[in-house]
Amino acid sequence: MAEPLTLYKLMILYLLKKVNYPLSNGQMSEFFVSKSYTDYFTFQMVINELLGTSLIHKETIRNTSRYELTKEGEEVLFYFENKITGEVKQDMDDFLKENNFKLRTENSVLANYYKSTASNDFEIDCVVKEGKNTLIELKLSAATEEMAEKMCDNWEKASKEIYEFAMKKLL
C-alpha cells in the first residue's frame, strides 16, 4: 500500500476519473472526512499539491472550487492506480454511486458574476451543464452587485423552467 499522502492523491485522481463532471472541494472532502481517511486540513494540503503539479485543474465559481482531472493526472493514475487497494476503491465507488444524483446536480447548474470592464454594470453568466456538455448558457447584465447576486441565486431555482421555456419556443 502507498504512503498516506500519496494514497490520498491517488484517491482524488481516482474520484475525478470516475465522474464525467467536476467535483467540488466540499464534495471530495466530505468523502475523505466522513470515511475517516484523513482530516480536512490534510485533504486541503493534498489538493494544493495536486494543483501545484498540474495533475488536477481548479475552477472557482462564486466561492466554490471545482476540480477536474488533467491529462497529466490521468497518466499518473494509469501507472499508479494499482497502489489503491480494492477496499478503498470500493469505498469510493460506493460513495459516487450513492451520491451520484446529488453530486451531478450540484455541479450542473452554475451562475457567476463579475464587474464589467467596459461599463459599471455586472456581467452574469448562467449555465446548465450535463456532464461536460453545456445545455444552455445565458449571459445577462445587472446594474448593481446586489442584483447580480440575486440573479445568480435565483438561477439555481429557475434554470429548469427557463431551459424548458427556451426549448419549447425554439422547437
Describe this protein's structure.
By secondary structure, the chain is an alpha+beta fold. It folds into two domains: 103 residues, Winged helix-like DNA-binding domain superfamily/Winged helix DNA-binding domain (Arc Repressor Mutant, subunit A, Orthogonal Bundle), CATH 1.10.10.10; 62 residues, no CATH class. Helix content is 55%, strand content 23%. The chain has seven helices and six strands; from the N terminus they run αβααββαααβββα. The longest helix is centred in the last third of the chain and has 26 residues. The radius of gyration is 18 Å and the shape is elongated.
The gross shape turns out to be: elongated
What is the third-level CATH name, the topology of the largest domain? Answer: Arc Repressor Mutant, subunit A
Tell me which CATH architecture of the largest domain applies here.
Orthogonal Bundle
SS class: alpha+beta
Please, what is the CATH homologous superfamily of the largest domain? Answer: Winged helix-like DNA-binding domain superfamily/Winged helix DNA-binding domain
Number of strands: 6
List SSEs in N-to-C order.
HEHHEEHHHEEEH
User: Alpha-carbon distance between the termini?
Assistant: 55 Å
Point out poorly predicted stretches: none
Q: Report helical residue fraction.
A: 40-55%
Trace the largest sheet across and list its strands. 1-3-2
Number of helices: 7
Q: What is the chains' assembly state?
A: single chain
Averaged pLDDT: 91
Count structural domains. 2
Give the strand content.
Answer: 15-25%
Main sheet properties: 3 strands, antiparallel
CATH class of the largest domain: Mainly Alpha
